[in-house]
């Protein structure tokens, strides 16, 4: 005891022999003195301190992390990397180290000594301490990239972009991604034209595109030369062949006079001039390109110079801006390929103060400050995803903890949190937002581990339940595995897994679906239910370029499906069932009113699609107008519902041969035999117009297995086959196709 | 936080990698946008608003320290 005291009193730094100090300390009982002694030892003999910690874990005590961090730093300062690595290894078992900078320094030092394996291990330790440690991810990326493991490297880049949306990280990710070989994903070509500097948006768009599984290429118009680029048919813009053009014009750039409180008549003139100018540009783009054009709406940077009189006087600026954007929106409504992006509401989410910084504006013509770029990119993706057919079709919802608070099996129907006051109001609000989605044609389904006799009464009778049974296209309330249930839901609704979104408050269920069904978009639902609604509204996966009649009534369609299914179950035979449906088809040459729906079908039909060509509006219009082509559409009704326009086909006429360039049908009407009626009509038209042969093409994709035998089943013979592409032929006069007996309508006599 | 710390945070480096001599030439992400992020980062950290003429002068850590002194900041 007296020896211990002496050791502390004189201080171990007076012990010149390190071994002696170590031995002395090792004799100390655990407790404060031992800790203090080790703290001193760290400075004179860090290696000895590491050894001591290893043999005397009792020295670590409650505030062991201070000791560990202190020792780690001390080792690094002395460049004792091997000892530091050993300490980290020990720390892995004892949680000695909380400071990730120690790991980062050590890992970088190891990497410099060419020990990339050791460095990677230490970077991973940093990530275990802090899963959002950006330098560790960068380090791991660099190691993978250097070793030529491009797949792993790109995964680290993706994780970086998920973790940190600062420009520094996002631009790093963007730069590095260009260096990796073999970019994956469906291509998309995006052009940005602007009257101000918008370069910084590109890395953010790139990140968002990759998240959506797209492989983007960008074109950035030269600063403020949007007019020349748009007017010149041979400009770089059109050479680039964009799929989407974003046109971002600053009000102060195209109409500087609004900055100085103009008079009423000046404002009226300016509005006319701006609308005219934008429409002129849009028409030019439409004439030279098939791109989707997204015009940013106009917004002001400062406050209205008239102060509180702005809404009283005729020349108030905010009012005028509203009328300008309204007029523009009204004009663009008739342009199928051109949209007005509500810029003010986009930056409003970020906050006007954060989304525009005067200094950046003056210094760099940067109208949109860094803080606004993530949201601007995300909102822009709504157009891109809708164009590329990435719209999700159905939200699969859990019940307990997701649509209401609490567990109904324990709390009972009246006991769940759901109602006009908190807690409970947040779930009502979330349900309202979900109901809003159904108005856009998005389906809802339930997948819950529950007893149906517990859960169904809430859905049917709870006074504050917003979503009732008729809002759900499919329900799985049982105790089986959710992955199996979701597969069944996809089958029942006849949509692909990549059309589904899964929302569940239970992280274990989410993890299961992420792993077993990666095509399903599993949402990381926030823990706090008051964020549910916002989370849903922020999702960019539910946007459509046009709302068709079919979208608005889709929920009812699936309800009818359930009734149809019931009829099938009671029918004695399939034949009897099909006859009982009273199916009627109408097949026409597609008219202009059908344009939106036909384009939608081209871009979202995956299963019953023989060639999967993704035609856009301009192509479809060409098919409608050209003598060379015939564009058919197919309408189907039965006694349960009107399915609407559910199929389309493109025929290219080449003398006596009719080439079926595309033939596709919504999966909603698969299995009814209407495709045969469709083909029969095409065949009889071909006979009437003295064609000799139909040539059918089948291009294999991951999804269109269901139609692999389509031509064989209809009597076509195989002409040739290569690389998953088949060509089939049918001599039309010799092999007439028989329309199924249970289908009425669709004969060629009705139209010419 | 020191100027080095801010530079390290903005460009995702370790503070030990940042010296007085660190500049637009030596740090990879210090392009024009990076510069704007850095100026914003310095303003937030040291609670100052830096005039554009000064912000444009800030081409190295040494320059930044000298200019910040004029704003009464002694990092």
N to C succession of SSEs of chain B: HHHH
Instruction: Strand order, main sheet of chain A: write it out.
Output: 16-17-15-14-13-12-11-18
How far the N terminus sits from the C terminus of chain A, by CA atoms, comes to 110 Å
Average pLDDT value of chain B? 90
Greatest contact pair?
A: A-B, 23 and 22 residues
Secondary structure layout plus pairing:
The complex is a heterodimer of chains A (752) and B (75).
Chain A: H1 2-10, H2 18-26, H3 32-44, H4 46-55, H5 64-77, H6 81-94, H7 100-112, H8 116-129, H9 134-146, H10 150-163, H11 167-179, E1 186-194, H12 201-211, E2 214-220, H13 226-231, H14 236-239, E3 244-248, H15 251-254, H16 264-288, E4 292-296, H17 317-332, E5 338-341, H18 343-350, H19 352-355, H20 358-364, H21 373-387, E6 394-397, H22 408-411, H23 425-438, E7 443-449, H24 452-461, E8 472-478, H25 482-493, E9 500-503, H26 507-516, E10 521-522, H27 532-538, H28 549-552, H29 554-570, H30 574-581, E11 583-589, H31 595-604, H32 617-625, E12 629-637, E13 642-654, E14 657-665, H33 674-688, E15 693-699, H34 710-713, E16 717-722, E17 725-731, E18 743-745
Parallel strand pairs in A: 1-2, 1-3, 3-4, 4-5, 6-7, 6-9, 7-8, 9-10, 11-18, 14-15
Antiparallel strand pairs in A: 11-12, 12-13, 13-14, 15-17, 16-17
Helix pairs in contact in A: 2-3, 3-4, 3-5, 4-6, 5-6, 6-7, 7-8, 7-9, 8-9, 9-10, 10-11, 11-12, 12-21, 16-17, 23-27, 29-30
Chain B: H1 3-10, H2 32-46, H3 52-57, H4 61-70
Helix pairs in contact in B: 1-2
Give me a quick take on this structure.
The complex is a heterodimer of chains A (752) and B (75). Chain A has 752 residues and is α/β, with parallel strands linked by helices. In chain A, the strands form three sheets. In chain A, strands 16-17-15-14-13-12-11-18 form an eight-stranded mixed β-sheet, with helices on both faces.
């Amino acid at each position: 005891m007296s020896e211990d005291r002496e050791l502390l009193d004189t201080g171990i730094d007076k012990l010149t022999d390190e071994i002696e100090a170590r031995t002395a300390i090792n004799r100390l009982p655990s407790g404060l003195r031992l800790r203090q002694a080790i703290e001193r030892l760290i400075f004179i003999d860090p290696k000895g301190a590491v050894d001591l910690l290893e043999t005397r874990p009792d020295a670590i005590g409650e505030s062991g992390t201070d000791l560990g961090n202190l020792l780690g730093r001390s080792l690094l300062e002395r460049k004792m990397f091997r000892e530091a690595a050993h300490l980290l290894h020990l720390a892995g078992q004892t949680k000695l180290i909380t400071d990730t900078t120690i790991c980062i320094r050590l890992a970088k030092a190891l990497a410099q000594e060419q020990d990339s394996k050791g460095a990677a291990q230490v970077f991973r330790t940093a990530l275990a301490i802090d899963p959002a440690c950006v330098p560790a991810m960068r380090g791991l990326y660099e190691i993978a990239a250097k070793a030529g493991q491009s797949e792993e490297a790109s995964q680290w880049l993706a994780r970086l972009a998920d973790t940190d949306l600062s420009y520094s990280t996002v631009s790093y990710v963007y730069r590095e991604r260009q260096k990796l070989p073999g970019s994956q994903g469906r291509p998309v070509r995006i052009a940005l034209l602007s009257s101000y500097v918008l370069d910084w948006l590109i890395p953010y768009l790139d990140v968002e595109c990759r998240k959506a599984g797209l492989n983007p290429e960008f074109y950035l118009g030269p600063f403020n030369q949007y007019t020349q680029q748009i007017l010149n048919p041979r400009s770089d813009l059109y050479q680039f062949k964009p799929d989407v053009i974003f046109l971002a014009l600053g009000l102060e750039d195209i109409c500087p006079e609004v900055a100085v409180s103009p008079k009423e008549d000046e404002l009226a003139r300016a509005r006319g001039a701006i609308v005219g100018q934008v429409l002129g540009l849009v028409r030019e783009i439409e004439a030279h390109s098939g791109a989707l054009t997204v015009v940013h709406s106009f917004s002001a940077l400062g406050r209205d110079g008239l102060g509180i009189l702005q809404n009283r006087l005729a020349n108030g600026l905010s009012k005028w801006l509203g009328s300008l954007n309204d007029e523009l929106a009204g004009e663009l409504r008739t342009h199928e390929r051109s949209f007005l992006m509500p810029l003010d509401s986009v930056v409003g989410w970020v906050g006007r103060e954060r989304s525009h910084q005067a200094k950046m504006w003056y210094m760099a013509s940067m109208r949109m400050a860094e803080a606004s770029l993530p949201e601007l990119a995300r909102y822009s993706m709504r157009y891109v995803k809708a164009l590329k057919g990435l719209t999700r079709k159905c939200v699969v919802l859990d019940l307990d903890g997701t649509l209401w608070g609490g567990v109904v099996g324990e709390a009972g129907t009246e006991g769940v949190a759901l109602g006009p006051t908190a807690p409970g109001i947040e779930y009502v609000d979330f349900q309202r937002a979900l109901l809003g989605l159904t108005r856009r044609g998005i389906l809802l389904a339930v997948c819950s581990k529950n007893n149906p006799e517990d859960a169904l009464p809430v859905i049917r009778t709870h006074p504050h339940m917003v979503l009732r049974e008729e809002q759900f296209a499919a329900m799985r309330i049982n105790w089986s595995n959710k992955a199996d249930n979701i597969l069944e839901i996809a089958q029942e609704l006849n949509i692909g897994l990549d059309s589904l979104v899964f929302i569940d408050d239970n992280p274990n269920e989410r993890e299961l679906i992420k792993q077993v069904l990666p095509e399903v978009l599993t949402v990381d639902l926030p823990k706090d239910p008051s964020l549910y609604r916002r989370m849903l509204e922020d999702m960019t996966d539910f946007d459509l370029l046009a709302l068709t009649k079919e979208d608005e009534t889709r929920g009812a369609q699936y309800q009818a499906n359930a009734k149809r299914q019931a009829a099938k179950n009671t029918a004695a035979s399939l034949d009897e069932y099909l006859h009982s449906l009273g199916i009627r088809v109408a097949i026409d040459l597609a008219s202009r009113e059908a344009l939106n729906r036909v384009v939608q079908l081209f871009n979202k039909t995956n299963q019953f699609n023989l060639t999967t060509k993704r035609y856009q509006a301009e192509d479809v219009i060409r098919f409608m107008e050209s003598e060379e082509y015939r564009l058919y559409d197919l309408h189907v009704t039965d006694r349960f519902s009107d399915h609407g326009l559910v199929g389309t086909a493109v025929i290219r006429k080449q003398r006596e041969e009719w080439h079926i360039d595309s033939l596709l049908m919504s999966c909603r009407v698969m299995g009814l035999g209407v495709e045969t009626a469709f083909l029969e009509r095409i065949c009889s038209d071909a006979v009437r117009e003295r064609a000799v042969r139909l040539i059918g093409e089948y291009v294999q994709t991951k999804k269109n297995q269901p139609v692999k035998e389509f031509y064989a089943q209809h009597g076509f013979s195989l002409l040739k086959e290569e690389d998953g592409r088949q060509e089939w032929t049918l001599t039309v006069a010799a092999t007439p196709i028989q329309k199924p007996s249970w289908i009425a309508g669709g004969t060629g006599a009705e139209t010419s | 936080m020191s100027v080095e710390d801010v530079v390290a945070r903005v460009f995702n480096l370790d503070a030990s990698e940042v010296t007085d001599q660190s500049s637009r030439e030596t740090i990879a992400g210090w392009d024009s946008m990076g510069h704007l992020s850095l100026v914003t980062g310095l303003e937030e950290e040291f609670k100052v608003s830096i005039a554009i003429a000064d912000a444009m002068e800030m081409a190295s850590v040494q320059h930044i320290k000298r200019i910040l002194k004029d704003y009464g900041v002694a990092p």
